[in-house]
Q: What sequence folds into this?
């Protein structure tokens, strides 16, 4: 009799495989719902469901810790609105009743009593001491349930219920998985790209700025929280005591993000990476008059990628000096950052910044030139890293640069470093993006600077040009590599198109400045 083969046992899935499988199942279920249209709808939907499961798991841990310590514990979310009350039971509330409970201001609750609906309750939460209830209310004030089929929503909830946020391994893995979903969302819808800065760029800026425990760190255009997460990870390695960890958790990291979608994504991203009570302001970073920002509002370090282009309302423009009002959002953020950096008073270290700017900021004249004049005269713009084509592809083809400056004194000379593309490449693409390892040569050069094929320095006198009467003619930071071998005849078609695009940007910027000047002079 032939020997029977024993059935093969399936290899146990890793944590990463299990979580990826859960998330994939959720996305497959959501594709069937007519209320959702693409990843730009599905990811926020998945996020708020995960957010509530995460909160309930954390609250369970805290309740147990309080019990052991003999202390009273007050949950952020009360019964019957906790995950365990309405979502944890796979056979629980479903269908139209589930949709009504979540969406309506008043509904039949899971305890069979009539009362506030889930979202109405969450939006109404208030705290007296700035605890997590305020964060929850801010998150849900801009969040909507877009699923229309309560049975499909119950299937999603049951899948998310399989995630154990009490496991550090699962939280870490889900944090990485969540970052990959943010990248996918950026790639699937052009306008969401503004929420996401490529991870290698974020890591490079944080590496060279080297935030230190005890400093206050701000991203005034936080998006999905990439800079705050990377700074948190960087500072975690410096924590040696419980006091260090507490300091990192509170009063160290700050962000500002006014748009509801990236605000929600940012909160979830930070929570998954271990920041327990993210301090993210949900209002417009530009809402305060610059003159009202004083020393108490300043920070030690700013790392950011402010939005390019865009247009602010007239009331926002009035917060800036008359001769520096512009429709270009990146220039408004640059002025805000200059104002927010700590002054070196009474032994304090001067504030410093690492930020992404479009090429237009480097070559712009008029208002842009006057802003750069102030930057060069009152700040030390010590380094400009010129990024290659396609770093932000497919969101934008605009060439970008990294500015590094501090408040140690006026600029005397500027180091330029031209980050090259990998050999044989003409640009980056969605499928072949930039990698952090490509910054290794720049990181080595940063510590021991010398002029070479990709690095050169320029005196500030060669940047700031004045006429005989002392009026500013230009402040052109768009300085080409003097060792570049490429000439016009041998330019690639991509480079020629890029140069044409830059000239068009200059023209458009001039038109926008003229429009802004007309608006500012128009009588009320």
A:
């Amino acid at each position: 009799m032939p020997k029977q083969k024993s059935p093969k046992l399936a290899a146990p899935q890793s944590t990463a495989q299990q979580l990826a499988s859960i998330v994939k199942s959720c996305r497959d279920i959501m594709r069937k719902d007519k209320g959702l249209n693409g990843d730009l709808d599905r990811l926020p939907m998945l996020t708020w469901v995960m957010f509530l499961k995460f909160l309930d798991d954390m609250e369970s841990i805290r309740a147990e810790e309080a019990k052991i310590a003999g202390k009273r514990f007050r949950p952020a979310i009360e019964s019957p609105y906790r995950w365990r009350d309405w979502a944890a039971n796979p056979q629980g509330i479903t269908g139209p009743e589930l949709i009504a409970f979540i969406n309506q201001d008043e509904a039949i609750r899971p305890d069979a009593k009539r009362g506030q609906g889930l979202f109405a309750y969450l939006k109404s939460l208030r705290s007296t001491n700035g605890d997590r209830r305020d964060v929850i209310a801010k998150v849900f004030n801009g969040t909507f349930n877009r699923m229309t089929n309560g049975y499909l929503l119950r299937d999603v909830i049951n899948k998310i219920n399989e995630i154990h946020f009490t496991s550090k391994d699962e939280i870490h893995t889900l944090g990485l998985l969540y970052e990959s979903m943010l990248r996918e969302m950026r790639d699937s819808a052009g306008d969401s790209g503004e929420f996401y800065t490529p991870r290698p760029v974020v890591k490079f800026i944080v590496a060279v700025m080297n935030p230190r425990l005890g400093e206050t760190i701000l991203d005034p255009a936080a998006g999905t929280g990439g800079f705050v997460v990377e700074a948190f990870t960087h500072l975690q390695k410096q924590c040696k005591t419980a006091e260090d960890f507490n300091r990192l958790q509170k009063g160290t990291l700050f962000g500002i993000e006014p748009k509801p979608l990236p605000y929600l994504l940012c909160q979830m991203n930070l929570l998954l990476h271990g920041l327990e009570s993210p301090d993210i302001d949900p209002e417009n970073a530009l809402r305060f008059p610059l003159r009202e920002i004083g020393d108490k509002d300043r920070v030690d370090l700013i790392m950011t990628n402010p939005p390019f282009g865009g247009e602010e309302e007239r009331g926002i423009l009035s917060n800036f000096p008359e001769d520096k009002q512009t429709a270009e959002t990146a220039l408004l953020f640059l002025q805000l950052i200059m104002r927010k950096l700590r002054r070196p008073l009474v032994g304090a270290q001067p504030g410093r910044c690492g930020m992404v700017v479009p090429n237009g900021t480097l070559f712009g004249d008029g208002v842009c030139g006057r802003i750069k004049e102030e930057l060069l005269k009152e700040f030390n713009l010590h380094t400009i890293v010129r990024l290659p084509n396609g770093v932000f592809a497919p969101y934008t083809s605009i060439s970008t640069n990294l500015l590094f400056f501090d408040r140690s004194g006026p600029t005397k000379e500027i180091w330029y470093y031209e980050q090259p593309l990998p050999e044989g490449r003409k640009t980056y693409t969605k499928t072949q993006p930039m990698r952090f390892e490509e910054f290794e040569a720049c990181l080595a050069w940063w510590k021991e600077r010398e002029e070479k094929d990709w690095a050169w320095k320029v005196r500030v006198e060669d940047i700031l040009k004045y006429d005989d009467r002392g009026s500013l003619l230009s402040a052109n930071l768009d300085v080409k590599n003097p060792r570049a071998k490429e000439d016009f005849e041998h330019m690639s078609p991509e480079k020629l198109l890029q140069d044409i695009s830059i000239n068009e940007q200059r023209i458009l910027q001039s038109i926008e400045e003229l429009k802004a000047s007309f608006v500012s002079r128009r009588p009320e």
Notes: Residues 29 and 152 are 6 Å apart (CA to CA). The two ends are 99 Å apart (CA to CA).
